[in-house]
Amino acid sequence: MSYVNCxxxxxxxxxxxxxxxxxxASLEKGSPQKSLKDYITLLHFTAFCPDYRTYALxxxxxxxxxxLYAAMEIHCHLTKVGLLSNQHVTPPxxxxxxxxxxxxxxxxxxxxxxxxxxxxxHGNLMLMxxxxxxxxxxxxQIFKRMPVKDLVSWNxxxxxxxxxxxxxxxxNLFSRLFSSGxxxxxxxxxxxxxxxxxxxxxxxxxxxxxxMNELKLxxxxxxxSALVDMYAKCGRIDMAAxxxxxVKRNHISVWNTMISGLAAHGLGSDVVILFRKMKxxxxxxxxxxxxxxxxxxxHCGMVEEARQYFKSMxxxxxxxxxxxxxxxLVDTLSRAGLLDxxxxxxxxxxxxxxxxxxxALLSACRRYRQTKLGxxxxxxxxxxxxxxxxxLSNIYSSANRWNDSEELWKQRxxxxxxxxxxxxxxxxxxxxxxxxxxxxxxxxxxxxxRVLLELSxxxxxxxxxxxxxxxxxxxSEEEREENLTFHSEKLAVAYSVLKTxxxxxxxxxxxxxxxxxxxEWMKIISKVLCRVIIMRDRIRFHRFESGCCSCKDYx
Length: 555
Known about the structure:
repeat, DYW_dom
């Protein structure tokens, strides 16, 4: 006869310590549901009075069988018997709520826990609960009220800010972590370096690197990759290469990061050399390596090399091409004007082409004025973003099909698809200055516009002619030219000229791909001012110097 059946027949012969043993036995035998059933039976047929150990066992059972309803009932019992402040009971209940995304209940429990506990462990659980669903602001509310914050707390918030693309917040949090007296670890540094890379915050990234050296931090492959990535994305490919040549290169991620950095800077020949070196050191490439190689080919017009790399993936390394590999090869062919071959490749793919692939083809249709193929491409796209409407509208405008262009904008408006706002920024004097097209919100607006108009005047004297066909509206030539004059990247360059001395290198970042008109303007301005202008857009880097661009107009 089992303990429980015995207790049913002799309800007052119970010895209380044995009850917890019964519940524990069921748990250890892998029967959490039986533990919960035994508990209910004991409550009904005995004079059993649970203690905190009983509730701790029951919550373990709830966690193992994911019984949220039972856990909430136990929560009510704990409140009634005054055990909600017991350190053996409340933490597992908090974990259970967080595991089931019941953050409202978890918050109520956490606020009550702050009255008797300063352990950052509980707050860290709450942070992870909110951050895993991208709720950075709610996580920050918890973070602010945590009486004690450990390194896990800070690292969670920094990483969460990076994942939410709140890059300034991530860097501010790192600065506060350093000021708090805690010593950042490898996870702290890898997260903040990622923020610097994505934001193009070169000065801050260099300070972080200096701090790593001062702390004599052990550099593993994660930090090596993060440093190479940061310098490459902040325009210092020379520093990225220097770090790459001094760190251990026994992990594929370090090689992949360096190849990707060279690709973004349009250094195709260096990519080819580095890949040969990688093979000579017997480092086996993976799928990411080939995405980087094919991207380098697309940026540098290396069509034959792209074909060879794509073939060697399967023949030499048994890597099945995925949509990213097809996308990079389609982009390579499209940029080279081989639109028919690119379209044939898309139709013969073993995987379903995504929007990125169709967009690469559509972009090439605009460049090479292939209206019919552009229309076919748009028909194949499952959904259209604002950029797709812009590309097709540009194709129509170039062909003087103003009615079709206007109809396209009406469709976009009806579908409530908003145009992606172009944003450019520069890092000067330890601060980041952001600009939108036609922006007049900056304190130095009047001076910025004065400098910009003077630069445009000098550019025209050197042969610059605004590419007014890029303006998709049927308006006068003067209005089209004015529309192009005040693009965000031009405002950013004008501000840099205003605030820096002659000969100083100018570094501008943009969230979208720079337009053809701004590209031509930058080339001429670099010649007029005898300055190097580095532009980091969504796709790649452009280094403008003496009237030429590093992309060789292949972008």
